[in-house]
Write a structure and sequence with these properties.
The chain is mostly helical. Helices cover 51% and strands 6% of the residues. It contains 16 helices and three strands. Helix 5 packs antiparallel against helix 6. The N and C termini lie far apart (84 Å).
């Protein structure tokens, strides 16, 4: 689509001219581009038109329909913060349009914002994810769904990336199969996958209904089918709602087995460690050893009496370096006192 700020020749009373006036009211070029992109996504979904083609009859929208749009964005794998920003762009436009005396009601777009929690998707251990892959086999298109789950938790790819992958995106490099995809910023992201998983993906081609496809894509599942799959799995496996297990949870499985922040960032394809830090730190957080728990610790000091000297030394050496250094200093002081 041509950039909105340079389009000329439009009548001053056209809907697009009004939208352009709204966007140009922001001084930041970055904000203008962000709003243009968000509004274009909305009208493509709602009216099947780009901004230049929107007419007055395309503008009115009911409250329930706007709720559907928010749900659509959630199923499209955007995070909650991004969805809230995209929703806010449309809401602001409709306030502007109502003031400009278009036949719209901005109040119809007042919906509840999503909770902007960096861990909005609950976490799954790889073992749990594998149980879900085995459980889903009995569903319609079960083999394809199981393969989708396995590639999701193994490669930590987003749903949108998985659904766009073709068999050409998996290459054999240095004795290993590697899934190569393009992520944000137009960069290649590579994740090795086990040979048995690659063979499982290849076996999908043997399914009868795959003969109907000629696009070379690995998966042919709709987002609604994936949502229904997750709803069914949560119910069948008695996963409580409080865990908030969604498809994105498969991507977070890698955090359970990552040895370092750097390794987790590389697996997830993050260019900045700060993007990974909150999620990684939350996964590695030891709640059992926090002050609120330690103050109620009823384990008696005599528990150390049952340990040998070697066991005590080994336990000490497994502590953080700062703790070990403080213990060394204290041990050195006690040793000197004994020499007096």
């Amino acid at each position: 689509m041509s950039t909105i700020y340079n389009v000329v020749g439009l009548q001053s009373n056209s809907v697009f001219a009004s939208i352009k006036s709204f966007i140009n009211s922001f001084t930041s070029k970055h904000t203008q581009r962000t709003y243009e992109r968000s509004l274009n996504i909305f009208f493509m979904w709602y009216a099947g038109k780009e901004l230049e083609q929107v007419e007055e009859g395309d503008l009115p929208i009911r409250y329930d329909k706007f709720i559907d749009y928010q749900t659509h964005l959630r199923n499209s794998d955007y995070n909650n913060s991004t969805i809230n920003n995209m929703i806010a762009s449309v809401q602001s436009l409709y306030v502007f349009l109502e003031k400009t005396e278009y036949n719209v009601k901005a109040t119809n777009l007042k919906i509840k914002s999503l909770i902007e929690n960096p861990e909005h998707a609950g976490s799954l251990h790889p073992d749990e994810a594998e149980i879900m892959a085995q459980t889903v086999l009995k569903q319609r298109k079960g083999k394809e769904k199981a393969a989708l789950i396995r590639l999701a938790y193994t490669a930590s790819f987003r749903k949108s990336t998985l659904l766009s992958m073709t068999y050409d995106d998996i290459v054999f490099i240095n004795g290993c199969y590697v899934a190569r995809v393009i992520i944000k910023g137009g960069k290649y992201h590579e994740v090795p996958i086990p040979t048995e998983l690659y063979e499982e993906l290849l076996s999908l081609k043997e399914l009868d209904y795959y003969k109907n496809y000629t696009d070379n894509k690995i998966f042919h599942l709709r987002t609604k089918a994936i949502q229904a799959m997750m709803d069914s799995l949560r119910k069948e496996l008695n996963i409580p709602d409080s865990r908030n297990i969604v498809f994105h949870s498969f991507r977070n499985s890698a955090l359970k087995v990552s040895f370092s922040l750097e390794e987790a960032a590389n697996q997830l394809g993050h260019s900045s460690l700060n993007t990974t830090r909150d999620s990684y730190d939350n996964e590695k957080k030891d709640y059992s050893n926090m002050p609120s728990m330690r103050m109620h610790n009823k384990i008696p000091n005599s528990v150390f009496d049952s340990l040998s000297k070697e066991e005590l030394i080994q336990m000490i050496l497994e502590e953080d370096s700062g703790v070990i250094m403080r213990m060394k200093v204290k041990a050195n002081e006690l040793s000197k006192q004994g020499d007096i």
